[in-house]
């Protein structure tokens, strides 16, 4: 999908301020049914999992209707989505690879990160289970068995958040060499799941994408993630980050922050919580909590120095 940079609206350049709550009065103080931000567009780069499941469309529609704006959604793997943000060709990024998000922030390209939601990863394959990994939730042991038996494993191989997690899991399993049994598809999650369903292999998938395609494929979950009692190693958190306007002064920062506030607020939480396919909840909101997690705003390994105390 081609990405087109938007022209800044003339009214913004003249010092007008976009209210984060979506002002409904005109800048000259007169009454006006149209919000000041009406007609504007922000570009969101996000993962194939949030886009292909239909969740993003469900989230964006109320926001667009309320403020009279457009959210131009670009579906990419996490690495590509963050790279689009680095180049200033998107305003806000929602992805699921914390180490890559942290790098994005540490390099100065992203600000005001927030947790949004989570699901988990699962190892899926055909019911005949040629490597015999069903029945255990030790993902490291399962991957070691797949490698030892030379059972075909299809990797996304696309620098996505799922691909980053998969490489982390192979490393944790101590598998450093891949033979002919390991195939890189270089495609999105839906395409890989379809391929595995046709060829009888294994792959790592996020639960949301897998559940959204269950009616189209004949695959089983062989190793569960933490949602169904599996290891925390398979947790799959999603975060959202605004592109830094100090680096790219053409980004729609104010509107992006309004969008982040909406997504992580009560309305966004409710939509995420109630979004189901075939009766299955795909994602679980975590932006609002009685016990705030301050680490969500900064890289995970960051801590204040003694001088800051």
Summarize the structure.
The protein contains eleven helices and twelve strands. It is α/β, with parallel strands linked by helices and 309 residues long.
Please give a structural write-up.
There is one protein chain. The chain has 309 residues and is an alpha/beta fold. The protein has two domains: 42-118 and 236-308, D-Maltodextrin-Binding Protein, domain 2 (3-Layer(aba) Sandwich), CATH 3.40.190; 120-234, Periplasmic binding protein-like II (D-Maltodextrin-Binding Protein, domain 2), CATH 3.40.190.10. 33% of the residues lie in helices and 20% in strands. It contains eleven helices and twelve strands. The chain has helices at residues 10-13, 48-52, 55-67, 78-86, 98-106, 139-149, 161-173, 189-199, 207-212, 253-263, 266-274, and strands at 41-46, 70-75, 92-95, 110-125, 153-155, 182-184, 202-206, 220-223, 235-243, 276-277, 280-281, 284-285. Strands 1, 2, 3, 4, 7, 8, 9 and 12 form an eight-stranded mixed β-sheet that branches. A hairpin with a 2-residue loop joins β10 and β11. The longest helix is centred in the first third of the chain and has 13 residues, at 55-67. The chain is globular and about 60 Å long. The model is unreliable at 1-31 (pLDDT under 50).
Counting structural domains, the number is 2
CATH class of the largest domain: Alpha Beta
Average pLDDT, rounded to a whole number, is: 86
Q: By helix and strand content, what is the structural category?
A: alpha/beta
- Name the shape in a single word: globular
Strand residues, percent: 15-25%
Compute the CA-based radius of gyration.
21 Å
Q: What is the N-to-C order of secondary-structure elements (H for helix, E for strand)?
A: HEHHEHEHEHEHEHEHEEHHEEE
CATH topology of the largest domain: the name is D-Maltodextrin-Binding Protein, domain 2
CATH level-four homologous superfamily name of the largest domain: Periplasmic binding protein-like II
CATH architecture of the largest domain: 3-Layer(aba) Sandwich
Model regions low in confidence, pLDDT < 50 over at least 5 residues: 1-31
Number of helices: 11
Helical content band: 25-40%
SS elements, strand count: 12
Q: How far is it from the N-terminal to the C-terminal residue, by CA?
A: 47 Å
The largest sheet, given as strand count, sense and whether it forms a barrel, is: 8 strands, mixed
């Amino acid at each position: 999908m081609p990405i087109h940079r938007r022209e800044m609206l003339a009214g913004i350049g003249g010092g007008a301020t976009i209210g984060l709550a979506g002002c409904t009065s005109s800048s000259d103080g007169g009454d006006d049914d149209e919000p000041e931000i009406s007609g504007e567009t922000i570009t969101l780069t996000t993962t194939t999992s949030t886009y292909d499941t239909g969740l993003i469309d469900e989230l964006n529609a109320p926001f667009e209707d309320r403020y009279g704006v457009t959210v131009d959604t670009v579906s990419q793997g996490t690495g590509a989505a963050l790279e689009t943000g680095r180049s200033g060709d998107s305003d806000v990024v929602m992805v699921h690879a914390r180490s890559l998000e942290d790098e994005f922030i540490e390099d100065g390209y992203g600000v005001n990160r927030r947790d949004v939601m989570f699901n988990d990863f699962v190892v899926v394959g055909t019911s005949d289970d040629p490597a015999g990994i069903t029945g255990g939730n030790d993902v490291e042991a399962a991957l070691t068995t797949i490698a030892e038996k030379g059972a075909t494993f299809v990797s996304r191989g696309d620098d996505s958040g799922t691909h980053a997690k998969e490489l982390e899991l192979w490393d944790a399993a101590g598998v450093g060499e891949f033979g002919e049994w390991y195939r890189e598809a270089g495609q999105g999650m839906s395409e890989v799941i379809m391929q595995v369903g046709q060829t009888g292999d294994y792959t790592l998938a996020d639960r949301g994408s897998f559940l959204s395609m269950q009616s189209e494929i004949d695959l089983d979950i062989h190793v569960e993630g933490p949602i169904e009692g599996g290891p925390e190693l398979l947790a799959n958190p999603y975060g959202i980050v605004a592109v830094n306007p100090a680096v790219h002064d053409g980004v729609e920062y104010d509107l992006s922050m309004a969008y982040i506030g909406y997504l992580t607020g009560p309305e966004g939480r409710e939509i995420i919580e109630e979004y189901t396919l075939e009766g299955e909840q795909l994602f679980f909101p975590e932006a609002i909590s009685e016990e705030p997690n301050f680490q969500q705003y900064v890289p995970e390994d960051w801590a204040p120095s003694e001088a800051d105390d």
